[in-house]
Amino acid sequence: MKKTSMNGWLVGINIFMVLILRVCPAMGEEYFINPNGNDNNLGTSPTTAWATISKVNEQDFNAGDTVLFEGGCTFMGSLQLNSEDSGTATNPLIITSYGSGRATIHGGNLNAIVCIGSSYLTIQNINVVGLGIKTGQLPGGIGVKVKGGSFVTIDQLEASGFRWAGIQIDSCSDARITNIYAHDNGYAGIRGITHLPRLYIGYCHTSNNHGDSSVNEISGSGIEIFHASDATIEFCEADHNGGDQKPGRGNGPVGIWICYSHDVIIQYCISHHNTNSTGDGGGIDLDSECYENIVQYNYCYDNKNYGIQLWQWSGVQCIEKNVIRYNIFENVKANTAHTIWIGHNEGTPMGIRDNEFYNNLVINEGPVIGLSGEKITDQRFYNNIFVTSDSSGFLVDAKESQGFVFLGNCYWSHDGKFSMYNKYSSLKNWANTAGQEKVNGKIVGLFADPQITYWQFGESKLTDPTKLPKITTFLLKKSSPCIDRGLDLKKMYQMDVGTHDLIGNPLPLGSSFDVGPVEYHIN
Questions:
Q1: Other C-beta atoms within 10 Å of 170: how many?
Q2: Is 385 helix (H, G, I), strand (E, B) or coil?
Q3: 159-194, pLDDT tens digit by residue?
């Protein structure tokens, strides 16, 4: 047998240890903070805990470390983390609570938690509180402020009382914001600013973020995200936001909106009762330079203005190639508001073009689709159900020269009147004159009661986004003329129409596609 030298044996042991460490990452240290602790302690157990946030701020934490604040207790001050406070993919740095309930970090008149350059950081199971919008909170105050870094997760957190935002994230890739309740803040509940690739926001509730009347900013949104890409916003509720921004400002807040963003999916969200004294106050908005985004499987209702908006106010990129499908936009209260609102600021160089709206249900007391501006072209509407109780019509302030396409839609007005372009008073006349709603010489559109189920009087409307796939209203009745009347968009235009409808039915469920967001099925 060949002998092994001592050096060779040591090399073998070192290689073995490296392999073991890669398979079984080293665990970090635990640090405890409670009001009865002492900053001179080691901090590594509940009985040797630190007492203050100031002591925590003095430390540089390593991969795998966990910082634990005692549940049920309030800690005054601003927790400050930087690039030295980072974890790794297998061993994140964790900030959380221990014991019974959540700990609360009270940021006073400014910020509660600030993370500058941290990566692989998780903040979870903690509440953050500010002094309140009108009771001493300084402008710019934020519950959790993240700037730079990557792979930051914020989960199971309540944020309230901040003049700016409950959570704000900026220049951070692969961030996750989940299970957040952000309420009674000023500018927004959840806000994203710049460079946000692969951002995920899920299962969040943003409510009563009314705005800040002391600053000349759009304020009072639920979720507002700028410069996102390859991102997802899903299963979120945004309600009762807006209404208290600075008087005299024309534009305003939205329940959920994105801007300067592309390849974002907004799905399974409920946006309702959002408001503003002037403009906006809508459900969902794709704003300037948004392209190639998908808005699907959402429910917007009882907002001050629109259910869905596409609006261009600046930039060098058209709003284009967005898809809005399998949504319900219901009951916009203001008679002058349009449920689908498409427009741009005067003088904006780039317009809005080449967007698709299909298999949506739109119910409105006023006009269904409204435009503002002439740089709006090639909008296409397929297989939608449009219902209005107002004789002002299905499309207003538009020109036929803008090149819109309508095919396979069902139109219904409770007063029995049909109006398109303020020119055509019947579907048949419009189809035969303008060629709309016609395929191979046959009229494929409907002017008929779609026969759908509605909420019962006194019944509460849905607020839990996770129940959207099981919604029992807005379904087609057996007598509906929309059954098997939808166009096969995949066959006709090679469109990827998805695999399922709003409630998970396969497409198509019957012999052909249905009109609207839900395929007819027998319960």
A1: 18
A2: strand
A3: 999 999 999 999 999 999 999 999 999 999 999 999
The contacts of residue 304 (CB under 8 Å, 6+ apart) are 242, 274, 275, 276, 280, 281, 282, 332, 333, 334, 337
Q: How many C-beta atoms surround the C-beta of residue 481 within 10 A?
A: 16
Bond from prior residue into 508 cis (ω within 30 degrees of 0): yes
- pTM of the entire structure? 0.93
Residue 187 near residue 226, CB atoms below 8 Å? no
Mean pLDDT of the chain: 92
CB-CB neighbours of 512 under 10 Å: 12
Domain ranges of the chain: 28-185, 227-235+260-275+286-523
Answer for the pair 516, 362: CB distance below 8 angstroms, yes or no.
Answer: no
DSSP 510: S
Provide the b/e sequence for 35-59 (b: ≥16 CB within 10 Å): eebeeeeebeebeebbbbbebbeee
- How many CB atoms neighbour CB 477 within 10 A? 13
Topology of domain 28-185, CATH: Pectate Lyase C-like (2.160.20)
Q: Which of 70, 47, 43 has the alpha carbon at shortest distance from 57?
A: 43
Measure the CA–CA gap between 163 and 144, rounded to whole angstroms. 12
Gap between the Cα atoms of 117 and 277, Å rounded: 38
Question: Residue 24: which pLDDT band, with cuts at 50, 70 and 90?
Answer: very low
Dig out the tokens for 154 from the structure.
């914020």
- Does the pLDDT at position 335 exceed 60? no
Of the candidates 340, 358, 298, the one whose C-alpha atom is nearest the C-alpha of residue 486 is 358
Task: Report pLDDT digits (tens) over 281-332.
Answer: 999 999 999 999 999 999 999 999 899 999 999 889 999 999 999 999 997 6
Provide the percentage of residues in the chain whose pLDDT is more than 70. Answer: 93
Which of 510, 268, 504 has the alpha carbon at shortest distance from 518?
Answer: 504
Which residues does 46 contact at the CB level (< 8 Å), separation at least 6? Answer: 32, 34, 70, 98, 99
Place of tokens 């139109």: 411
